[in-house]
Design brief:
The structure is a single chain. By secondary structure, the protein is an alpha+beta fold. It folds into three domains: 114 residues, no CATH class; 41 residues, no CATH class; 98 residues, no CATH class. The protein has a four-stranded antiparallel sheet with strand order 1-2-3-6, with no helix packed on it. A hairpin with a 2-residue loop joins β7 and β8. α6 runs antiparallel to α7. The longest helix has 23 residues. The radius of gyration is 34 Å and the shape is elongated.
Length: 293
């Protein structure tokens, strides 16, 4: 039997069952509320939220049909067409979220895939913000013929730098902003390498987030996570410590001239020298400097 004949027979069977239900079974359906007066297939579609006149040429599944029915139901609520929701429906913020990314499964799926699997859609070569390690990798690959002997050392160098960054230990931080506006300030972080005494720093611009919703003229606080571009890469600091020094505390401040890192360290001298003698020698040195200035 051809596919066309099979389709025609199934659709005629569907029409016969639909007519049987509307004519005989509907009157004996005790689960149907009295306020629903179903007489036609369109009335049944409005009650079931299921298209009973769709052609067999449209492929679907039970899950897809359930999703479509649920979306139709929420659309009716947002439009004030669902009984009981004529006046009490979605808020302005909920309606915006539904309209922008949730009202259709295809749109929601695309948004989720781009959010959680960006590598499937974004070409790393086209990124506007690239780390120095990635730029070095690009440069190494562009300067040679791509084969195993040339690609392997370039990738190994990149992974070695990535391993150092991945094992950093954050030791301090600084918030550059007003105390009443931390949600939109710039955050700075200091980290120490596990390999040597090298220190790194990076920043986070909390203002780079999705614009907040505005309800009745009032702007709500941004509650979502920062955008990936809000983070800067880890950069090496010129702050160095000798291995004999014991670090007590680190701090960072941001001035007009740039970002400054300073720390308080301690070390032990042998033989031990008393604190008054150290203070006296320090003051004497300062007097000589001032006198010769």
């Amino acid at each position: 039997m051809s596919e066309y004949i099979h389709q025609q027979l199934n659709e005629q069977l569907r029409d016969a069952l639909l007519a049987l239900y509307l004519t005989y079974a509907l009157a004996e359906d005790s689960t149907l509320p009295r306020q629903y007066k179903i007489r036609t297939a369109d009335d049944l579609y409005a009650y079931w939220l299921l298209d009973v006149q769709v052609s067999q040429a449209v492929p679907t599944t039970r899950v897809a049909s359930a999703i479509a029915s649920l979306q139709h139901y929420i659309n009716a609520i947002s439009s004030g067409l669902e009984p009981g929701y004529e006046t009490l429906g979605m808020s302005s913020a909920q309606h915006k979220i539904w309209r922008d990314s949730l009202h259709a499964y295809s749109i929601w799926r695309t948004v989720q895939q781009v959010r959680h699997f960006p590598a499937h859609y974004l070409d790393p070569m086209l990124r506007s913000q690239k780390t120095e390690s990635f730029k070095k990798l690009e440069n190494d690959l562009n300067q040679c013929r791509l084969d195993a002997d040339s690609v392997r050392p370039a990738v190994q160098r990149y992974l070695a730098e990535f391993e150092e960054i991945a094992t950093l230990k954050t030791v301090s931080g600084y918030i550059d902003g007003a105390s009443n506006n931390f949600a939109n300030s710039t955050y700075y972080f200091i980290a120490k390498s596990n390999i040597d005494s090298t220190y790194f720093w990076r920043s986070l611009d909390m203002s780079k987030r999705t614009e907040p919703f505005v309800i009745d003229g009032a702007q709500l606080y941004k509650q979502d996570i920062p955008q990936p571009g809000a983070w800067s890469e880890w950069k090496k600091s010129l702050f160095l410590l000798l291995s004999s020094f014991q670090t007590i505390v680190f701090a960072l401040c941001v001035l007009i001239t740039g970002c400054w890192l300073y720390g308080l360290s301690a070390f032990r001298l042998r033989p031990p020298i008393t604190a008054p003698s150290i203070l006296g020698r320090t003051l004497e040195s300062l007097r000589k400097v001032i006198k010769n200035a």
